[in-house]
């Protein structure tokens, strides 16, 4: 699934490590999500959406 | 559970696997010294101590080593750990069934393969029922 996590993270000048800490996941998991190698669970997707002040649909796009 | 609580739990768990590794090394020493084999005692301890050191030193550099060290703090790592455990289980079941079939075709008793296969089968059945009901 495509997503805008990398772009949103960069607009906030956050590293993957910092975003991972804020969301309670590892740096590698943030990287895997950004690259589309891992689709987060619904709770994590909602946590990300709330963190960036968006809806889940605005961040994650079904191909 | 809050993120802080999760992190505290993870920090504690990071040392569990290395501690168990060292404990196994001490176990090797005790068992082989009791059998009068100091060479194997030293070798067994060296292997476990080396593995523990490998986990501690490389877990920051490699995610796979971090997982082996027991750092399963987020959902993706939990899924990786579950998949690895499931694959291990499948390989073990295949080995057990192969051993069972080979012993039977040789005309031997299938023991202990039959017992291992039964334990594996019953565990899989009960686990499937349990996790289905749990949702």
Helical run tally of chain B: 6
Main beta sheet strand tally, sense and closure of chain A: 2 strands, antiparallel
* Tally of distinct domains of chain B: 2
> Roughly what percent helix of chain A?
55-70%
Protein name (chain A): Helix-turn-helix transcriptional regulator
Keywords (chain A): DNA-binding
GO molecular function (chain A): DNA binding
Domain HTH cro/C1-type (chain A): 5-59
How does this structure look, described?
- The complex is a heterodimer of chains A (63) and B (135).
- With 63 residues, chain A is mainly alpha-helical.
- Chain A has 5 helices and 2 strands, in the order βαααααβ.
- Chain A has one domain (2-54): lambda repressor-like DNA-binding domains (434 Repressor (Amino-terminal Domain)), CATH 1.10.260.40.
- Helix content of chain A is 60%, strand content 6%.
- The longest helix of chain A has 11 residues, at 42-52.
- The mean pLDDT of chain A is 96.
- Chain B has helices at 3-13, 16-34, 38-58, 63-68, 75-105, 113-134.
- Chain B has 2 domains: 1-73, no CATH class; 75-135.
- Chain B starts with a helix and ends with a helix.
- Chains A and B meet through helix 3 of A and helix 1 and helix 5 of B.
- Chain B: InterPro entries: DUF2178_TM.
- Chain B: It comes from Streptomyces boncukensis.
- Chain B: It holds the Pfam family DUF2178.
